[in-house]
Amino acid sequence: MSSVTTGVPPGPGTVPPARERRGRRTVLGTRPWVAALFLLPALALLGALVVYPIGWSVHRSLFDASGDGFVGLDNYHEVFSDDRIRTALKNNVIWVVVAPSIATVLGLIFAVLTERVRWGTAFKMIVFMPMAISMLAAGIIFRLVYEQDPDRGVANAVWVGIHDTFSDPAPYPGARPRPNGDLTAASDGSFTSKSVLRQGSPTAVPLVAVKPEDAKGARDAVPARPEPGKVTGTVWLDFVRGGGGTPGRIDPGEKALSGITVRAVKDGRTVASATTAADGTFTLPAQADGARLLLPADNFAERYRGAEWLGPTLVTPSIIGAYIWMWAGFAMVLIAAGLAGVPRELLEAARVDGANEWQVFRRVTVPLLAPVLGVVVITLVINVLKIFDLVYIIAPGSSLPDANVLALQLYQSSFGTAVNQGLGSAIAVLLLLLVLPVVIVNIRRMRKERRR
């Protein structure tokens, strides 16, 4: 029986052979095996550089320091019981909460405030410039900024300048009477005479250990003259350059100590006080007769040397400050790019409706910038979880345990003096687990953005 060709086109339910073959292609029109072939190098690199190290770290974390003895979860138990690692974990929490928040807020403020000014671009360039500096260079810079000596450290130079503006420094820090002299030291740093003051009998008050710069330009000391009805005396630096001279007596060339406060004390009560003149002399009224001479501790207190920025208390906030200095520009640039895409009609409509600038910023600008702010915060959170070099460079050896973070502890445990790569691998796995939630949130956010 012969088949009859009717010439009628296939019905709607019939798929032509050519179209059926084309249907086996992917959405992009590429055969699956061709796509797999092109993706193979990338997948191989991903497996070699990401998947394999993660798997090996998980495996290595289950063994001891030698790598031969299986210890199970003992390394993870040590992670949460070791004081150093717990300090590092606490510091990481501080980093994650403080650094991204402040950097994002500063970036938002800079981006908004510089949007309408002529020099905004120049300002943004200056703020962003630290991003061009490596962490190593930034660490060295801020190690010098935080130097304790105000003559070298910028931070303490400013801090001491502000402090001394509102508080007068001691005239002769570190000065003291001659040993075995008439003045005895008290527990508060003051000095009191053993003998009592008498009218008509000038009192000699020799001091030593005055720093050369404090006595620079001082006049030569002169013996005080007796005055009727008054108590007089002289305070001077009892030291002759090159040696010589008689202790307790004003020799030629010995310098007067001006600006020193002297008090006359009877029965624990101050009855008179005076300040030494340029020639070192002082004069007290008749009420001082029979009182003891007191040199207050304020005359000899050490100069304020500023804050101990790299001490155990302030080392972590100080390093976070250096980090913010570097990354606030990054946040500002991203936020400024997002701000350029905000519809101006919405802002103008809010102003027309009576909203002031703060309300426009809080209720219109910030909500519209929420996706960009999310990108900035998530990026910085991931970055600070891996912070290592800035802490390692800035923190001195004495404060390094107090500034410790997980990435630094991982390095110390894996390659430090007490090498234990099992413990280091456990810390690496912990860091991975801490980063994963942030990465997952970021992936979900990007998928939502694509759907929009």
UniProtKB/TrEMBL annotation:
Keyword Plastid in annotation: no
Transmembrane segments: 33-54, 93-113, 125-146, 322-342, 368-395, 423-443
Keyword Nuclease: no
Region annotated Disordered, chain positions: 1-22
Coiled coil: none
Classification via PROSITE patterns: ABC_TM1
Membrane topology, record value: Multi-pass membrane protein
Biological process, per Gene Ontology: carbohydrate metabolic process; transmembrane transport
Superkingdom of this protein's organism: Bacteria
Positions of the ABC transmembrane type-1 domain: 89-442
Main location (coarse class): membrane
InterPro entries attached to this UniProt entry: Ig-like_fold, MetI-like, MetI-like_sf, UgpAE/MalFG_permease
Subcellular location: Cell membrane
Listed SUPFAM superfamilies: MetI-like
UniProt keywords, alphabetically: Cell membrane, Membrane, Transmembrane, Transmembrane helix, Transport
GO cellular-component term (any): plasma membrane
Family, per entry: Belongs to the binding-protein-dependent transport system permease family.
PANTHER family: BLL4140 PROTEIN, DIACETYLCHITOBIOSE UPTAKE SYSTEM PERMEASE PROTEIN DASB
Listed name of the protein: Sugar ABC transporter permease
Organism this protein belongs to: Streptomyces mobaraensis
Source organism phylogeny: Bacteria, Bacillati, Actinomycetota, Actinomycetes, Kitasatosporales
